């Protein structure tokens, strides 16, 4: 049998309200479900809340979302489907979100990451984020949150 043709490279797109169900599914698979369907719909309607996705065919493989607040991009989440990690998708979708923030007038970006989230911390460090503060016991399980920042104008 001849080999199967390679899958097409994932393509980047702007998330919109019609993607709320796919975002909810990926949110649940990657993060345990931080937002409800109604929250996702509201999130994706707002011009000042940019969200980017990477899709392969109909499958949403990765997403990154943020809020534009004055000259800051507040990154609310980054998620990659469990079977597709360590292939550069998280880096790509977050880098593109940072570019989108810069193009929209943000000069720096910030986020919170759980102190025990090795993959998250690894990704953010690779993109230049540095810890500027700690919120002790911030998460429901008592874990600390690291407050991180990066300058987008480099
Ligand atoms: C964090 C997450 C988004 C990373 O996505 P990913 O597509 O696997 O990451 P990438 O392949 O783009 O990796 C980019 C860099 O991040 C770092 N990194 C990624 N996964 C890592 C891990 N498991 N351990 C340590 N560093 C890691 C590395 O520096 C990596 O570069 P390298 O592959 O050249 O070493 C993914 O693990 C995920 O969805 N986790 C669950 C959701 C989550 O915790 N999100 C962050 C908080 S909102």
Number of domains: 1
- What is the H level of CATH, i.e. the homologous superfamily? Gcn5-related N-acetyltransferase (GNAT)
Mean of all residue-level pLDDT scores: 96
What hetero molecules are bound to the protein chains?
A: coenzyme A
- What is the CA-atom radius of gyration, in angstroms? 16 Å
In the CATH hierarchy, the architecture is 3-Layer(aba) Sandwich
CATH overall fold name: Aminopeptidase
Structural class: alpha+beta
Concise summary:
With 154 residues, the chain is α+β, with helices and mostly antiparallel strands. The chain contains four helices and seven strands; from the N terminus they run βααβββαβαββ.
What does this structure look like?
The chain has helices at residues 20-31, 37-45, 89-103, 118-126, and strands spanning 11-14, 51-56, 59-69, 72-80, 108-114, 130-135, 145-151. The chain has 154 residues and is an alpha+beta fold. It has one domain: 3-Layer(aba) Sandwich (Aminopeptidase), CATH 3.40.630.30. The protein has a seven-stranded mixed beta sheet with strand order 1-2-3-4-5-7-6, sandwiched between helices. The N and C termini lie far apart (51 Å). Residues 30-31, 77-80, 85-91, 113, 117-120, 122-123, 126 line the site of coenzyme A.
């Amino acid at each position: 049998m001849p080999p199967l043709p390679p899958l097409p490279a994932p393509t980047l797109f702007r998330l919109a309200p019609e993607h709320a169900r796919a975002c909810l599914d990926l949110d649940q698979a990657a993060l345990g479900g931080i937002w409800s369907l109604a929250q996702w719909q509201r999130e994706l309607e707002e011009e000042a809340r940019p969200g980017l996705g990477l899709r392969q065919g109909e499958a949403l493989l990765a997403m990154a979302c943020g809020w534009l607040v004055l000259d800051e991009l507040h990154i609310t989440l980054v998620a990659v489907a469990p079977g597709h990690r360590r292939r550069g998708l998280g880096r790509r979708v977050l880098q593109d979100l940072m570019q989108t923030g810069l193009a929209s007038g943000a000069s720096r970006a910030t986020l919170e990451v759980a102190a025990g989230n090795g993959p998250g911390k690894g990704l953010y460090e690779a993109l230049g984020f540095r810890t500027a503060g700690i919120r002790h016991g911030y998460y429901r399980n008592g874990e600390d949150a690291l407050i991180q920042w990066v300058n987008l104008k480099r």
